[in-house]
Each structure stands twice: as C-alpha cells, then as structure tokens.
Amino acid sequence: IAVSPQSRGRWLTGTAGMPTIRPWTAIAMRQRLAERAVWLRLDKRAGKWEPALPPEWAAAGIVGASSHPYPCLSGVLTAPTLRPDGSLLDADGYDAETECFLATAPGLRVKIPTRPERGDARLALSILSEPVEEFQFATEADRSAWLALALTASLRTAIRGPCPLFLISGNAAGSGKTLLSDLASVIAHGRHAPRMAVARDDDEARKRITTIAMFGLAFVLLDNVETAGRSFGSPSLDVTA
To answer: Sign (positive/negative) of CA torsion 16, 19, 23, 25?
Structure first.
C-alpha cells in the first residue's frame, strides 16, 4: 500500500495523495529482498563468500508466482466502517475478516459507540442530512436516494454482493450534481471522489474497471454522463459488483 503522488492517468483524476494498492515490480521486490536479508555470492577463484545483490530470478519468481502464503488484500479504507457481521471496524491496519487495510484519514478519527441506541441513530441522521439541508432536490425521494448513496459508500464493506450504481441527474449545468457525489465521498472516505469519463467502448471500460479494482478504489464518480440519443452502460459495467 502506498500514497499515490499523482493521478493514475488522463482518464482517472483525483487520486493524488490517496492510499491505494500498488502492485510489486521485480525491481522493487529485488530492492526489498536486499534490505531484508544478507545475500552472498561464492567467489570460486578466491574460495570465499562475498556480499552480493539478490539474483534477478528470485525477485521475478516471487512477483510472478501464481499464489502466495500471504493474506489477501481486497481494498484500502480511509474511514471506520462495519464488517458483514455488524461489528465495528475502526482499528487501523489489516482486517482479516474484510480483507481490507484501514488507514483512517486524520479528520475521520472520531469515537464511535459500539452499541448505539435510537438517540445515536437520530443524531447521526441529523448530522448526515445537514450538508444537503438547503439543497433543492426535486422530491423527498431524491433526498432519500442521496442519503442511501452516502450510507452505501460508508458501509460497502459490510455488504456481501453487488450494490447499485447511483445516478445523480439535474436539469441544468452547475446544478450541483458533482457536489452531491463529492459530499457522499467525503462522508464515506474523507476526500473528494476520484472521477473519470465514461469509456467509449467496452474494451476500454473493461481495462478501466480492472485498474480501479487493482488499486482498491472504493468510490469512483463517472462524471458528465450524457445519455441523450444513446443508452448508458456496457457489458463490462453490467457485470461489475
């Protein structure tokens, strides 16, 4: 896991400074092996062992292995959440049950009651609703849908199975669609949502979804979706949980 110094590319922005999963390269693995062990090479002429770098094949073999005796890492969290059994996940570090690594953002380190009561739930609802209290939703059902987005993003780890893709629509440019998405992301993860444009073809969509999954991004905004005259979606997006 490492903090991304910059966004991943032209198609995905907003990941700078975000902790994400970084795949090992053979070069990085060779450096780590050199740091963690003393490597020796036999000088046959002198008949003695001398310090050496780890062999390239050793690093390449570890990185390219089809399986490892290490725990699986499914994602990186930046805020406390719930496990599937309803228990609270708020301790930084690796969590075996969810297979996620929690690196709590500084602004989200708050004390959470382990046995909340009805009054705690009402207070939480009031706090969640306050940022959009004056937002002009078309109906109260739309306000409830936004609340469902914020809660789903916050509790995704507790849900076994797929979750819905949330659509935020507006009747004019600058009506606050992106702001609503960022609000949900800030509540759930402590930062604005990484965003990308919709891929033009399914092959590109598959590559982008794969990249998002590899880096463990839990929330991504598909920004400025235009559906006039065409349908939205692709086979790769349809099968994504």
So the answer is: positive
CA 205 to chain centre: 18
More confident residue, 162 or 57: 57
Distance from C-alpha of 201 to C-alpha of 224, rounded to nearest angstrom: 16
Burial of 114 (0-12, 13-18, 19+ CB in 10 A): exposed
Edge-to-edge strand list for the sheet holding 195-196: 12-13, 195-196, 221-222
Q: What is the mean pLDDT of residues 102-118?
A: 84
The model's pLDDT over 67-102, given as tens digits with 9 standing for 90+, comes to 888 888 888 999 999 999 999 999 999 999 999 999
What is the pLDDT of the chain when averaged over all its residues? 87
CA distance readout (Å), 161 to 38, 136, 151, 235, 241? 45, 32, 16, 18, 7
* Nearest partner of 193 among 207, 212, 210, judged by Cα: 212
CB atoms within 10 A of CB 139: 8
Q: What is the pLDDT of residue 41?
A: 93
> How far, in Å, are 7, 59, 76, 127 from residue 182 at the CA level?
17, 41, 18, 16
**CA distance to 199, 209, 211, 220, per residue, from 203 (Å):** 9, 10, 13, 19
| Residue 216: count of CB within 10 angstroms of its CB | 19
State pTM to two decimals.
Answer: 0.78
